[in-house]
Amino acid sequence: MSIPPVPERPVADAAAILRWERADAAARPERLARFRARLAEASVDAWFGVRRESSRYLTGFRLGEGEEKVAGVSGQILVSADEVVLLADSRYRVQALEEAPESRLEEVYGDLPQRWPDLLSSLRPIRGGDPGRIRRVGAEAGAIPHAVWERLADAAPDVELVPLDGLLEGLRAVKEPAEVERIAAACAVADGALERLLPAIRPGVTEAELALALEWEMRTHGAEALAFDVACLAGPRAALPHGSPGDRPVRAGEVLLFDFGAQVAGYRSDMTRTLFVGEPTPRDRALHRLVADAQEAAFRALAAAAAAGRVPTNREIDAAARDLIAAAGHGERFGHGLGHGIGLATHETPSIGRRAAEAPLPVPSVFSVEPGVYLDGETGVRIEDLVLFDPAAHRLERLTAFPREWTVVG
Predict the structure, then answer these.
(1) Which of 79, 96, 141, 410 has a 20 to 30 Å separation from 400 between CA atoms?
(2) Quick one: pLDDT band at residue 2, thresholds 50, 70, 90?
C-alpha cells in the first residue's frame, strides 16, 4: 500500500504569501496564549527566546538562515504575561516595526546585560502580580552561550534563569493548516527541481556541478532560500549519510544520492532520492528495494493508525521500518533515526528513532520518513519523504510527489 502524494499543492505566488502572512498574524494570539499556559505550568514569570524560529513564530520578525550570527541581540524576545518585547538594534528597527507591530520594540545593542534588570522590571509576571516582580525567567539555554548566561545571571542576581529548551518546540510541532500549505509548496518546488535536473545527469559530471544546478533550479522556480545545503553523493560516497558534494565525477553503474530541500515563505521541505546512473548492480538494486520496503512498512503503520484515529509513538513507527532492515541483515547499517519534524527549521520535534525519548507523535504534524542502508566505502541508499499525519481527520498524506520507485538516469 503506497501513500499517494497530495493531488494539489499550493503555489507560492504573491496572493498565497499574503494569505499565509495573514494566517500567521491571526494565529499568533492563540500561539502566545498556549505558550503562556505552558510557561505558567513550568512556574516561570517570563521567557527569554533567542532562536530565530521562536521569534518568527511568536512575533513575525524574520532573520535569514545564519543571520543571527551577525544580528547581535536583534530578534531575541522576552515573553511576559501581557506582551512580547522584541530586541533589535538600529539595523533592524524599521524591519521590526513592520513585521512585528504587536510587539514592544526595545533598541538594545551589546549592552544587554546592563539593560537586563530594567527590561525585567518592566514586565508583568506570567504567574500574576505587578510589573517588577519577575523572579524566574525561562530561557532557551541550548542556544545561549555560557558566557552570556553568566553575565545575565550576574546582572540580576535575584532573578533565577531556568533552562526551558523544547517548550516552544513542542507547540510548533503541531502544525496549523497554513503551515502545512507552505511545507507542501516547498515540497513542490523541490520535486520540480529534481525532475528538471534529470537530463543533466550523466557520467562525467561532478557531484558539485549537479548540486549547484539543483540549487539553481530551486532558487529560480519559487524557493526564497535553500532549506539546507544540497547533498549530492555518488557511488561509495553515497555511504556518507550527510556528506558534502565534491569534485568526484559521476560514473556509470553507480548510485547517485540527492538530499535537498527548498524554503518557501519561511517553511522548508526535505527529500532524498537515490538514483541509478545507468544499469544498477544487483547489490544496489536489492538495497534500494529493501529501503523502499522499509519506508513502505512505516507508511503502512502510520496509515493504519490514522485510519483508526490512533496516535502511535515515535519508536513504534521507527521499529516498523527498522525491523525489516534488521531482518535483512543490515540493522547496523541503518544508524540514524527514521525521521524528524520540519517547519520553520529543517529539524524539529518530533524525533522518530530508537534513541528518541518514547512519546506519542504530535498531531497534526509533518515529519520525514527516511530509512537508509549504508555500506562503508561501497554504496548507500536512502529514500526520504515528508508526510502529514492527522489521525483526528483519519488523514495521512505524502507531501513529496517525486516518484519513489527506482529510477535510471544518464
Answers:
(1) 410
(2) low
Instruction: Give the separation between CA 67 and CA 69, rounded to whole angstroms.
Output: 5
Q: Are 295 and 321 in contact (CB under 8 A)?
A: yes
Q: Give the residue-averaged pLDDT of 230-236.
A: 98
Please, what is the average pLDDT of the chain? Answer: 96
Going by the DSSP 8-state scheme, the letter that residue 234 receives in this structure is E
pLDDT of 1 higher than 80: no
* Residue 355 CB burial class (10 angstroms; 0-12, 13-18, ≥19): exposed
For the beta carbon of residue 202, count every other beta carbon within 10 angstroms.
14
d(CA 50, CA 143): 7
Position 250 confidence tier, pLDDT thresholds 50, 70, 90: very high
In degrees and rounded to multiples of 5, residue 370 shows phi and psi of -140, 70
pTM over 0.85: yes
Q: Residues 6 or more apart from 332 whose CB is under 8 A from it?
A: none
CA atoms of 349 and 314, how far apart (whole Å): 11
Domains, in order of start, for the chain: 43-163 (3.40.350.10), 172-409 (3.90.230.10)
Nearest to 232 by CA among 211, 202, 252, 253: 211
